[in-house]
Design goal:
Chains A, B: Catalyzes the deamination of 5-methylthioadenosine and S-adenosyl-L-homocysteine into 5-methylthioinosine and S-inosyl-L-homocysteine, respectively. Is also able to deaminate adenosine. Chains A, B: Keywords: Hydrolase, Metal-binding, Zinc. Chains A, B: Its EC number is 3.5.4.28, 3.5.4.31. The structure is a homodimer of 426-residue chains. Chain A has 426 residues and is α/β, with parallel strands linked by helices. Chain A has 2 domains: 101 residues, Urease, subunit C, domain 1 (Roll); 286 residues, TIM Barrel, CATH 3.20.20.140. In chain A, the strands form 3 sheets. In chain A, strands 1, 2, 3, 4, 5, 15, 16, 17 and 18 form a 9-stranded mixed sheet that branches. In chain A, strands 6, 7, 8, 9 and 10 form a 5-stranded parallel sheet that branches. In chain A, helix 2 packs parallel to helix 3 and helix 11 crosses helix 12. Chain A is globular, with a radius of gyration of 21 Å. The termini of chain A are far apart. The interface between A and B is large, with 72 and 72 residues.
Amino acid sequence: MKTLLKNVGIYKDHVISEHQNIAIEDTRISGFPDVIHTEEYDTIIEGKGMLATPGFVNTHNHIAMTVFRSYADDMQLMDWLEKKIWPAEDKLDSDIVYAQTMLGIAEMIRCGTTSFADMYFFMNDVAKAVSETGIRAALCRGMTGCTPSGMQALEESKTFYQNWNGKADGRITVMLGPHAPYTCAPDYLRKVVALAHELHAEIHIHLCETKGEVENIKKQYGKSPILLMDDLGIFDCGCLAAHCVWVDDADLEIMARKHVRVAHNPGSNLKLASGIAPIHAMLQKGITVGLGTDGASSNNNLDIVEEMRLAALIHKANTLDPLVIPAETAVNLLTEGGAKALGYTDVGKLQEGYKADITLIDREGLHWYPKNDTMSLLAYSANSLDVDTVLVDGKVLLRNKEFTSLDIDKIRFEAERTKDKLFSSL
Amino acid sequence: MKTLLKNVGIYKDHVISEHQNIAIEDTRISGFPDVIHTEEYDTIIEGKGMLATPGFVNTHNHIAMTVFRSYADDMQLMDWLEKKIWPAEDKLDSDIVYAQTMLGIAEMIRCGTTSFADMYFFMNDVAKAVSETGIRAALCRGMTGCTPSGMQALEESKTFYQNWNGKADGRITVMLGPHAPYTCAPDYLRKVVALAHELHAEIHIHLCETKGEVENIKKQYGKSPILLMDDLGIFDCGCLAAHCVWVDDADLEIMARKHVRVAHNPGSNLKLASGIAPIHAMLQKGITVGLGTDGASSNNNLDIVEEMRLAALIHKANTLDPLVIPAETAVNLLTEGGAKALGYTDVGKLQEGYKADITLIDREGLHWYPKNDTMSLLAYSANSLDVDTVLVDGKVLLRNKEFTSLDIDKIRFEAERTKDKLFSSL
């Protein structure tokens, strides 16, 4: 199966070049031919005026929390969790998680997202939705060691890994998902590390999201969460750490040395008033950073272009330096940085041999005029709904802003049905 | 001329109600009939599933700076101004300003904006574009007292007021636009105040945008820019103050007492690393606040929904309080707050007798599902490209996401032509 993306601008090797072609053979990019023989291709996508970028990567999500989108906002964190989220999460089932995951995946594809990392429950249903929709994902079963189901979650994680890692034509990878240091005690985390080594699985964990949690861990263990995780061996497994808002220089040194990869969630961190993660300092130390939306309950959409915009803007004001996170850095966080954060080695660049995860962006919106610097237009002006075409693993999932195979009316209907079912049970 | 918006959700009196009708007679809202007689209306707009809000208001713009969108980013402010913007602004002409204003107005209408405040040069061309496109605007000729053209700018402002205030069926109001305290000395500002009193014109000015400018004014005059403006009588004219990032409690007291209205430009303030304006404190003191994009050179789009999102998010993290700027406050900044900031008394609410400036939002995007709280969906999840229909002064300017009368291909072409003309002259 050979596909050609014809006459597109492409973001490659840190610059954007116009009037390029991208050839795809099966699931991978096979080249960038100057001269094209149209008879060689099964599918030709005319891309005139479009911009091709590596598919966008959402590095931190709890995707089925779409059911809680705008369900309970403008509350204090503990009120929100104790009175709203936890009682409702207790009533989730496989049916609800599957329907809400389908909604979240469709929303992400519409915004140009080709892969995502997820941590939640009923992960078989999430994996099933990933498999069916064609998106790529790094999935983990969230584990809270402090609850009675802690040991069961470890067992489930193992089974989930065995059943799904490498499945869906290799589009699914499975990680282990201990929730956070404040919900998983050291003894529990040691068990997670042992299992990670046994399975050769990597770890996805929340770290240093709020000031309070960092202070509590320091009080309890006499060291920062980062140092505690390092001592427990979490970082020796390969680690995707979400948030990292409240980290100091000593923490950053450890993170850099141990190749901790960071999921930066600016929208969620702002909305929950957690703070602003020092990603400028992280990038200076060579730490890999990608962008995440976090769950729709705290964002409230899964629009990764909005996260790029936030990342491009908020660090400038936070450091009072207009030169931090310039346009190309923001675009890199959205694409290559995100792919690296998820541990991919052949995803995230437009390069021969890389997986054909590609987003085509329509540049005819008025906010793309006049046509000055394209990188800057993408970073500072683009809208997620400009996304026109999305390919994952060489397969076209969105074309002319329409889904090629997903039944969107059914997805909307099921999202409503399962939302009503959940809230009527409370 | 009678128009009916049928079966819409409406944001009115601080809440959203479904299945409502809005009747319009000529330019104004005439009522909200429960029972409708379709034969009474000349035009019926079926709004099933749509949400009607007061038209969005962009309270601070330099609209023709669309020509500089993504022309020169990621630079230090003075480098950017001295090496890029000022030399290029020197080459602007009437043709360029008109074409770029048409582009900016079309972009704003596409995003649901029904009125805006503008400060720039060649304002006759801006007013002509406002008149032709059907949008509402509060316009002023930017005046920099420190340049040789300072006195000429005052004269031009007077003529501009006389020629255009109240024109375009009352859609245009004219203000006086002294640029800022650091570009207009006290003697010059006294002349502006005298002219304002002579014409009964209000004032639009930049205040306290950067920390450095506030420090310099304090050094030079021994008082804050706010206190200096108060002493000069600027606030006695009715004043729209853009930015107000670096204001202290004493400044806020004066602003509240003198009814200074604030144009909050979060995107521009973040991008230029100016800082974060304390709008939460302003609102607590009863100060009127609206949202602005500032010019596209420092934003880089004119997407006022993006500004609402930023305003809803950044102040939570900045104060570490998730309860500040809740959903309804954010929506109010976008609509009624903005209209009040521009000095309108019959624009900015869905209320009988008010001007029919109305934005209809399509809620079928996946990010609007499942349908939990609508106000929260609007504040935290909506996308500007969800805007489906826009009315200003009772006239439909956008319908089904298409312009009813603007020739968008021509606007794009002219934006490119005049951009090329400008930059080839440098």
